[in-house]
UniProtKB/TrEMBL annotation:
Swiss-Prot/TrEMBL cofactor(s): Mg(2+)
Record carries keyword Isomerase: yes
UniProt keyword list: Isomerase, Magnesium, Metal-binding, Phosphoprotein
Record's protein name: Alpha-D-phosphohexomutase alpha/beta/alpha domain-containing protein
Domain Alpha-D-phosphohexomutase alpha/beta/alpha per the UniProt entry, residue ranges: 6-105, 144-212
Molecular function (Gene Ontology), one example: intramolecular phosphotransferase activity
Keyword match Magnesium: yes
GO biological process: carbohydrate metabolic process
PANTHER family in the cross-refs: PHOSPHOMANNOMUTASE
Stretches assigned to the Alpha-D-phosphohexomutase C-terminal domain: 231-289
Amino acid sequence: MQYRDYTDIYAQFLTGFADTRKPLTIVADCSNGTTGMVWRALSLPNITVHLINETPDGNFPAHGPNPLAEGAADQIAAAVRKHGANLGVIFDADGDRAVFVDNTGRTLPSYVIAHLLFDEHKPPYVLDLPTYYIMKFIKYERMRDVRASQVGTRFIKTTMKQCGASTAAEYSGHYYFSDFFFSDSAILAVIKILNALSHLPQSLAEFYDSLPTVQIANFDIQLNKDSIEVLKELEAVLGNKAQGSDHLDGLVLEFSDWWFLARASNTEPLLRIFLAARNKQDIEQNTAQLRNIIENV
């Protein structure tokens, strides 16, 4: 059997997307997964890269393979501040998800990255339901160009192809591109964000601060009853107060100052809840309200 290493070929392909117009510094946390070998082969113009946890190790000694896990971004936040970097990114183990931190070390929600990517690409765009309603809630000025999709890779790709979308994003940190075969690539997302940042007149933190304030919560509730009945009860209790509703993937109810999405897990007996409001007090109050309704079905 003949072995051939395609890493350099792939890195050269990715480098072709680079269009950074000013020097930038990035810290990339590879989470002891697969992206380190690709990053070492990349040569991006105007970009200084500091790699951490770049050696593959299935024991994941640094912080585990999930970049959204509590505490996972602590190391990269400190490294960004240490190096005075313009941004940082932490990958999951297989390199298809990316979670970004700004130049102050703050973890950025995926809607911020979607906003930047959309500014760099032609419409239309696709978002999974949680991100779609976050963008709608902050009154993203180009919502007319955005299509909503059910959560999940299969649904995102199908929706992209149906509407001819250039770019898509999921709440979980997956970013998809039509010029990447309608597939997701975390490293390509980073390259495109570097391009976008090099075109901005402000820092990444300043861009984030310029967006409307929104508080986001997501959590799971274990069920010992049928999820369809729970969703029906939520709509029966709260639907008459809602200003809008959506049944594309579970149940979305929109109110003047908050909204929620409740959708059943495809693999576990639980309900996944996404919730957004203007402040933490409203998040806490409405979380308690939802839990009370669900627990009393």
